[in-house]
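The instructor's notes for this session suggest beginning with a concrete chain rather than abstract definitions. Hand out the sequence below and ask the class to guess, before any prediction is shown, which regions might be ordered.
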Amino acid sequence: MNKDLPQGIKKIFKDPDPLIWQGIWLEILDLLLSDKQMIMVWTEFVEIIKDKYHEQKNMPFDQFLKWESKAFVAKAIKLKNTANNQENFIDGMHQYFSKKDIFISREMIGVVYKVLNKS
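After discussion, reveal the predicted structure:
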């Protein structure tokens, strides 16, 4: 895990539950937490969630951030395995979060795609 990640993200993923985070799920989580390019993505994501939280407030912020961060990773994992190109990946992430009124830039999602498909 990159030491420069936002504190909230480090806290959420500090000790991932081994029942969920194993195999390819853990590998992808590790990529998303260790790649330097992801620092900007996670930082911006936390800010987007803070803005959205001001509209929600039906749960503590830490819980809301945890919920949406795990959804972000889960959707990235699913799309890595199903999207056949960058455009489909970006569209899938963008549509998923847009339905939740969480607007993540296509550029941010493009960074995620590139991190997950470096090899």
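Then share the key points. Residues 2 and 44 are 16 Å apart (CA to CA). Helices lie at 7-13, 23-34, 37-56, 61-82, 86-98, 106-116.
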